[in-house]
């Protein structure tokens, strides 16, 4: 008798004829024979000890009772900068403000004159003699 949950023959997925013929004609002898080797690596003593330590730490955190904590007053210390630091910072801010607020319209127009004078023959002769 069929289970109420098992599908009927009509409900099963259909396999194409080409694939079905390939599956039926498959040659199992052409496959390579391989020995199955099961490798079971058991943990050593160090692994077991480290895992027990980790589990103990986690259990200690999970089971921690905050009622065991003691109240502590925190002391806030505000260290103010000395005069040298303040003066340095003011100088840096003034320089930055001067650069940011610079107006290039304050430049004077200047004509560039290139002068590339080559030495005369007499000057070259004097340098050779020295």
Structural account:
It is a single chain. Helix content is 41%, strand content 0%. The protein has 130 residues and is mainly alpha-helical. The chain contains four helices and no strands. The termini are far apart.
Topology of this protein?
Blueprint: H1 17-24, H2 45-62, H3 83-100, H4 121-129
Q: Approximately how much helix is present in the residues?
A: 40-55%
Give average pLDDT, whole number.
87
Structural Rg = 46 Å
Derived from helix and strand composition plus strand pairing, the structural class reads mainly alpha
Q: With helices defined by DSSP (H or I, 4 residues minimum), what is the helix count?
A: 4
The main sheet comes to: none
* Number of DSSP strand runs: 0
Query: What is the chain-wise order of helices and strands?
Result: HHHH
- Outline the low-pLDDT stretches: none
Measure the end-to-end span.
124 Å
What characteristic shape results from the CA principal axes? Answer: extended
How much of the polypeptide forms β-strand, as a percent range?
under 5%
């Amino acid at each position: 008798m069929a289970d109420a949950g098992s599908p009927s023959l009509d409900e099963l997925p259909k396999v194409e004829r080409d694939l079905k013929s390939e599956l039926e004609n498959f040659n199992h002898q052409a496959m390579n024979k391989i020995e199955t080797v099961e490798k079971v690596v058991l943990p050593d003593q160090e692994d077991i000890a480290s895992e027990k330590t980790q589990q103990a730490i986690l259990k200690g955190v999970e089971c921690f009772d905050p009622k065991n904590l003691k109240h502590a007053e925190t002391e806030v210390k505000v260290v103010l900068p000395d005069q040298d630091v303040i003066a340095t910072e003011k100088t840096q801010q003034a320089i930055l403000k001067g650069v940011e607020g610079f107006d290039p319209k304050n430049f004077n127009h200047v004509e560039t004159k290139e002068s590339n004078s080559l030495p005369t023959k007499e000057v070259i002769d004097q340098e050779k003699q020295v």
